[in-house]
TrEMBL record:
Ranges of residues in domain CBS: 200-261, 266-323
SUPFAM superfamilies: CBS-domain pair, FAD-binding/transporter-associated domain-like
Comp. bias intervals (Acidic residues): 420-438
Stated name of the protein: Hemolysin family protein
Record SMART domains: CBS, CorC_HlyC
Organism expressing this protein natively: Pseudoglutamicibacter cumminsii
GO CC annotations on file: plasma membrane
Membrane topology: Multi-pass membrane protein
Family named by the database record: Belongs to the UPF0053 family.
Locations listed in the record: Cell membrane
Signal peptide range in chain numbering: 1-25
Key words of the record: CBS domain, Cell membrane, Membrane, Repeat, Signal, Transmembrane, Transmembrane helix
Predominant place of localization: membrane
A Gene Ontology molecular function term of the record: flavin adenine dinucleotide binding
Length: 500
């Protein structure tokens, strides 16, 4: 009879633990919007008190859950003592059953149910949560203060950007959110680390108009380029005097009050931003000032390029094309498996074409990479190699003869012939050296001593001495002027004498 009562007590404690675990999972899974909607329920007072101090109630739930699980394990151990006479067997079996029930029932099943039925569970367990928190009294507040790091605000959520990114990736992998939505959220986070220089239109690609141009010239430029805003420059691109808008020029031409004949008269004041500014800051400034266009300057005050609101939005949502944009590919695949790319093609995109990791801190484009590798301005035929890729300039464009098209192919691995020039040179000298490590100079002195008639030191023996040296000393000959030994070129005659 006692064992039956103990088993019933253990079951009751496990049921309480399951209920508390379900309540905890439901409150954690409840969204803010759902919580605000539930405040209109008859139990809204209980819910408001719980939501006002969520951390304190959460610690109270966890405390009582652990306490009930412990009591359930003790009750099971006592019950098994009555069934099994051996105490070790009873304790081991009780520990095993407690662990299995705690993991499967209290840990997994309860949380799954609470997350799926969060609103219904919150309404049902609100009074239980308030009761266990009241029963614990000031202990719950003490637990919160003990668990809060020093200097942190009590109840603060320690949720970093890394945690959110990890949660976002897991949600995308389980298809809880769409891949496009996950990519958009990632793009928002990356705005903090993106600089204006990486999104701007480079100085060399800017469409500009001279300050002394007429309004008709501006209209023709707008029609040809498809731009609605164009910088007005003076002597060069560093002398930006304003920005002319298409609607301002048209309004001037068809207005009775305005009769401006020069684009500078209808141009607006240009806005300048440094190339080191973060994109998220510039986006907020555009929104606050109702501007869509800015001139980017470098650290020396020169014009580095321009950036528009469309460039910033494309970084978030991808390319935005209107009915006037033409889809012209900036690379073409060749028959041999290579690609012909534009000079301004991004290095990272080139690496993706060849399944490689190409990055460089100094340059962003393929043309810039070639210039860095060869150390000079590239011309037609300039070749550079990096990471198994061969880059060759095919055409030049523009008034300044900048690289236009670049051919990129994979470099075939070279087959080693086993010939090492340095090793062969050493072996050649060793073959023509003297016996027992005798050097060439020592051998010459020995031959001169043994055959003085043939190797005299006089001036009349220069020719014979040169002949002897070329035949018997191999690749080294004696300089008759100072008596030093120098290397001689290996002619066909030398090689024939070496064979015989």
């Amino acid at each position: 009879m006692t064992s039956v009562l103990l088993f019933c007590a253990a079951s009751l404690f496990f049921a309480l633990a399951w209920l508390l675990s379900t309540a905890e999972a439901a409150f954690l899974a409840l969204s803010r919007q759902a919580a605000e909607e539930l405040t209109d329920h008859p139990r809204r007072n209980l819910l408001r008190k719980i939501l006002a101090k969520p951390t304190q109630h959460t610690y109270a739930i966890r405390f009582w859950r652990v306490w009930t699980e412990s009591l359930a394990g003790i009750a099971l151990a006592c019950a098994f003592f009555y069934v099994f006479p051996h105490p070790l067997a009873a304790a081991g079996l009780a520990a095993l059953v407690t662990a299995v029930l705690s993991i499967l029932v209290v840990g997994f099943a309860s949380r799954q149910y609470g997350q799926r039925h969060a609103e219904k569970t919150v309404l049902f367990t609100a009074w239980i949560v308030r009761f266990v928190t009241w029963l614990l009294g000031p202990v719950s507040s003490w637990l919160v203060s003990m668990a809060t790091p020093k200097g942190a605000r009590p109840g603060a959520t320690f949720f970093t950007e890394e945690h959110f990114r990890d949660m976002l990736e897991r949600a995308s992998e389980t298809h809880q959110i769409d891949d496009a939505e996950a990519e958009l959220i990632h793009s928002v986070f990356e705005l903090d680390d993106t600089l204006v220089r990486s999104l701007m239109v480079p100085r060399t690609d800017m469409v500009t108009i001279s300050a002394d141009s007429s309004a008709e010239d501006a209209i023709r430029l707008f029609m040809r380029s498809g731009c609605s805003r164009v910088p007005v420059i003076g002597e060069d691109n560093d002398d930006v005097r304003g920005v002319v808008h298409l609607k301002d020029v048209i309004g001037n031409l068809y207005s009775d009050e305005l009769n401006a004949t020069n684009v500078l008269e209808v141009a607006r004041r240009a806005r300048f931003v440094p190339d080191s500014k973060h994109v998220n800051e510039l986006l907020q400034e555009f929104q606050r000032e109702s501007t869509h266009f800015a001139i980017v300057v470098d650290e020396y005050g020169g014009t580095a390029g321009l950036i528009t609101l469309e460039d910033l939005l494309e970084e978030l949502v991808g390319d935005i094309d209107d009915e006037y944009d033409t889809d012209t590919p900036d690379y073409t695949q060749l028959e041999d498996g290579g690609y012909e790319v534009d000079a301004g093609f991004q290095i990272e995109h080139l690496g993706e074409l060849f399944d490689r990791e190409l990055r460089d801190e100094d340059v962003d484009t393929v043309a810039g990479l070639i210039s860095k590798l060869i150390g000079k301005v590239p011309i037609v035929g300039s070749v550079a190699e990096i990471d198994g890729l061969r880059l060759e300039v095919m055409t030049l464009e523009g008034r300044r003869n900048r690289p236009g098209k670049i051919r990129v192919t994979e470099v075939e691995p070279r087959v080693s012939s086993g010939f090492d020039p340095e090793d062969s040179a050493d072996e050649f000298v060793d073959d023509f050296g003297g016996d027992d490590g005798e050097s060439t100079m020592q051998r010459y002195e020995r031959l001169r001593t043994e055959r003085p008639d043939e190797h005299g030191a006089g001036e009349g023996n220069k020719a014979s001495r040169g002949t002897l040296d070329s035949k018997e000393l191999g690749s080294e000959v004696l300089d008759s002027e100072d008596g030093s030994v120098r290397k001689a070129p290996r002619t066909s005659t030398n090689r024939e004498s070496e064979r015989h």
